[in-house]
Amino acid sequence: MTTTGTATLQRSADGEFVAASGDWTLAGAPALGALVADLRRRVSRGVRIDAAGIGRIDTAGAELLLDLADGGEVGGLDANRRALLDAVAKVRHAPVSMPPRRPSLIALFERTGRAAEQVWLNAYRLLGFIGLILVTLVRTVPDPRRWRPTALAFHLEQAGLNAVPIVVLLNFLIGAVVAFLGATVLKDFGATIFTVELIGFSFLREFGVLLTAILIAGRSGSAFTAQIGSMKSREEVDAIRTLGLDPIEVLVLPRLLALLIALPLLTVLAMLAGIVGGAVVGAFALDISSTLFITRLQDLGAVKHFWVGISKAPLFAFLIAAIGCLEGFKVSGSAESVGTHTTSSVVQAIFVSIMVDAMAAIFFMEIGI
Question: What residue numbers bound the domain in which 264 lies?
Answer without folding.
Answer: 119-366
